[in-house]
Amino acid sequence: MDKATWYYARGRAAQAASDVEDLVQSGVRSVLFNSPDEASAAPFLEAAGGQPLELHIGISLKELHERALGCPPPPMVIPDRDAFVARFGDRCLSTLVCWSGLTQGAALAAWLVRHCREAGYAKGVSLDVLRYPNTVFAEDFPCACESCQARRRPWLGHGCLEAADRTDPSVMYKELETKGAVIGGVARDLAQALHAAGLEFSLAARAVYAGRDHEHAAAPMWGYGPALYEGQDWAAWCRDGLLDTVHFMNYTPRLERLERLTRQHRDLLRGAPVRHHEGLGVTCSAGRLSPADLDDQIRLCADLGAAGVTLFPWHGVSAEHRAVLARW
Ligand SMILES: [Zn+2]
């Protein structure tokens, strides 16, 4: 199995050299490397020099927007904030952004190519959260920002989605078409610029990622459905050759759910020119994998034909987990 990991450099300067040694000894080939700034990245990069590791710059769409354009993306606007907070709490409220006004995909791509050239070490870029906010937040609380309203008015006649609009398939079709066009446009801009520069493009693809495990059981909380709802049509992007590798974010300790997801991914990727990696949540909000669980999950992915696995996150990987990895 091809092995990759998400690696977050923030706060790990002291362990950077031993992390590199552990990665190499565990047989990890690709590191999706996220660092908030150059100072945090330096100790790891120094230790990784000359080692058989491929480094990919890991960055979220939100971080990319902030660094490339010098400003945070506009927030999602939720008219009934009290009802939202009653259902989800206020913890995530400030993190929800809306992409309906995003038209600068080419500028984001140009910045990313420059950033890779300046960094010098990157084999490619791995995009994270290349999508609208989670379906669970958006389905009953559709965004009412100026950009969303302006996009709706020509075909809806008004700017905010009413309760009746949200059960009308034709309205939802137009709503999802907008999200797909915005995010798909950015994905195409990034793919074109990165490939022209000889860089790989990979994606942390939406699979199971919302926080509360009991909500993951039924649609629309898992699989391709919520990815589409959030504007992330990874299956089309893979078929069209935009992505070199797709890393699915299956953060579940439950083997039967991983199996259901991996089968869906395999079926939708059949014939697509892409490396298929299943992401495994070693430590995540849904729980923690024991070393035996990790072994079972890797075996399942291998049996179902995935090219590799991608661990989330490296700082959740123990010596016992590494011993499992080294055997695959
Ligand atoms: Zn909006």
Report the major sheet.
Answer: 8 strands, parallel, barrel
- Beta content: 15-25%
- Which stretches are poorly predicted, pLDDT < 50 over at least 5 residues? none
Q: Give the strand line-up of the largest sheet.
A: 1-2-3-4-5-6-7-10
Radius of gyration: 20 Å
Helix content: 40-55%
Bound molecules: zinc ion
What is the molecular shape?
globular
Order of helices and strands: EHEHEHHHEHHHEHHEHEEEHEH
Instruction: Give the class-level CATH name.
Output: Alpha Beta
| The CATH architecture | Alpha-Beta Barrel
Number of domains: 1
Give an overview in words.
With 328 residues, the chain is of the alpha/beta class. The protein has a single domain (2-73, 97-138, 181-327), classed as Glycosidases (TIM Barrel), CATH 3.20.20. The chain has 13 helices and ten strands. The strands form two sheets. The protein has an eight-stranded parallel barrel with strand order 1-2-3-4-5-6-7-10, surrounded by four helices. The protein has a two-stranded antiparallel sheet with strand order 8-9. Helix 3 packs across helix 5 and helix 5 runs parallel beside helix 8. The N and C termini lie close together (6 Å). The mean pLDDT is 94. It binds zinc ion. Residues 76, 98, 100, 143, 145, 147-148 line the site of zinc ion (ZN).
Produce the secondary structure layout.
Blueprint: E1 2-8, H1 16-25, E2 30-34, H2 38-48, E3 54-60, H3 61-69, H4 81-88, H5 105-119, E4 124-128, H6 135-138, H7 146-156, H8 169-196, E5 200-208, H9 224-229, H10 234-239, E6 245-250, H11 255-269, E7 275-281, E8 283-284, E9 287-288, H12 291-303, E10 308-312, H13 319-327
Parallel strand pairs: 1-2, 1-10, 2-3, 3-4, 4-5, 5-6, 6-7, 7-10
Antiparallel strand pairs: 8-9
Zinc ion (ZN) binds at residues 76, 98, 100, 143, 145, 147-148.
